[in-house]
Automatic annotation (TrEMBL):
Organism: Nibrella viscosa
UniProt catalytic activity: ADP-D-glycero-beta-D-manno-heptose = ADP-L-glycero-beta-D-manno-heptose
Record-linked Gene3D superfamilies: NAD(P)-binding Rossmann-like Domain, UDP-galactose 4-epimerase, domain 1
Keywords associated with the record: Carbohydrate metabolism, Isomerase, NADP
Annotated protein name in UniProt: ADP-L-glycero-D-manno-heptose-6-epimerase
Binding annotation for substrate: 169, 180, 187, 201-204, 215, 280
Function text: Catalyzes the interconversion between ADP-D-glycero-beta-D-manno-heptose and ADP-L-glycero-beta-D-manno-heptose via an epimerization at carbon 6 of the heptose.
Membership in a protein family: Belongs to the NAD(P)-dependent epimerase/dehydratase family. HldD subfamily.
Subunit text: Homopentamer.
Cofactor note: Binds 1 NADP(+) per subunit.
NAD-dependent epimerase/dehydratase domain ranges (all copies): 2-243
Residues involved in NADP(+) binding: 10-11, 31-32, 38, 53, 73-77, 145, 170, 178
Length: 321
């Protein structure tokens, strides 16, 4: 059995698809399953059992001998949530219990961290574990992810294999339910469908022209490929960046979305809201050298390749992965 927490969500459901493609069909899907909208993410997938996240630890105590691997993808990911107790329960304490169970039951673990831990990137975007305690996330979500990374590194007892993945700006199928937290590509597609144009934030930084703010956008198919690699590799435990390794501008993103939809670009700029201007990231780019150094050689989708596949094979037909 392979466990996937956050199974009905964006990355978790895409990971189950990847596992099914590799003929792993005894999947334990862990989530709260309270959102009817997310139900379509699991339609057609081969799942052995669904377990509510609040019942999961009791289930694991009874069934651990059959578990081969655990992907802990579930988390509260809303960067606009400021109730620390939510993050303390779901992102910190829940993850600590999973970590302890993986030690007790000898289960290898991959868990989701986040590039939100890097804050404004004052120390760069290198997954150097010695720098992690010095990072300054910009919101409680990023703080919760960084606190768990710090806690994990401090532990004397660790799972025999474990990896934390700092996801950068992930986009792709099955994110439709994320509303404000969905990728810019998803929002671009819907804006273009509804209005024929795309709105981008104006730059308020002297070093960046309008639309030339840059992010590391990584396609979800690449994310789940890396998860699969680590499940088979099971060596070189630690915390790894997971981006494309190439920063691209929002203009690149918008123009490629128009192109994939077969439309002429029509882009308008609006002021970045005043309440987020001082916390706005103008540049992110994952240093992917550490993952490459342990043997991951697969090509990461370019922004052009990822957007074309996402728009033409999933958004236009209304499909999930």
């Amino acid at each position: 059995m392979i466990i996937v927490t956050g199974a009905a969500g964006f990355i978790g459901s895409c990971l189950i698809s990847k596992l099914n493609q590799e003929n792993f069909n005894f999947i334990i899907a862990v989530d709260d399953f309270s959102s009817p909208e997310k139900e379509r993410n699991l339609t057609g997938k081969r799942i052995q059992e669904r377990v509510h996240r609040e019942e999961f630890f009791a289930w694991l105590d009874q069934n651990y001998q059959e578990v081969e691997f655990l992907f802990h993808i579930g988390a509260r990911t809303d960067t606009t949530e400021f109730d620390w107790q939510v993050f303390e329960h779901l992102n910190l304490n829940y993850s600590k219990t999973i970590w302890q169970k993986c030690i007790d039951y000898q289960i290898p673990l991959v868990y989701a961290s986040s590039a939100a831990t890097y804050g404004l990137g004052e120390l760069g975007y290198d997954d150097n574990e010695s720098l992690i305690p010095q990072l300054k996330p910009l919101n409680p979500y990023g703080e919760s992810k960084n606190e768990f990374d710090i806690w994990a590194l401090e532990q004397e007892r660790k799972p025999f294999f474990w990896a934390g993945l700092k996801f950068f700006n992930v986009y792709g199928p099955n994110e439709y339910h994320k509303e404000r937290m969905a990728s810019v590509i998803f929002h671009a597609y819907n804006q273009i469908c509804q209005t024929g144009e795309m709105r981008l934030f104006r730059s308020h930084h002297p070093d960046f022209r309008d639309g030339e703010q840059m992010r590391d956008f990584v396609y979800v198919k690449d994310v789940v490929d890396v998860c699969s690699f680590l499940m088979h590799h099971r060596r070189n435990s630690g915390i790894y960046n997971l981006g494309s390794g190439k920063a691209r501008t929002f203009l690149d993103l918008a123009n490629n979305t128009f192109r994939a939809m077969g439309r002429e670009s029509q882009i308008n700029f609006v002021d970045t809201p005043a309440d987020i201007r001082d916390k706005y990231q103008y540049y992110t780019q994952a240093n992917m050298g550490k993952l490459r150094s342990i043997g991951y050689t697969k090509h990461f989708c370019t922004l052009e390749e990822g957007i074309t596949d996402y728009v033409q094979n999933y958004l236009l037909p209304g499909k999930t992965l």
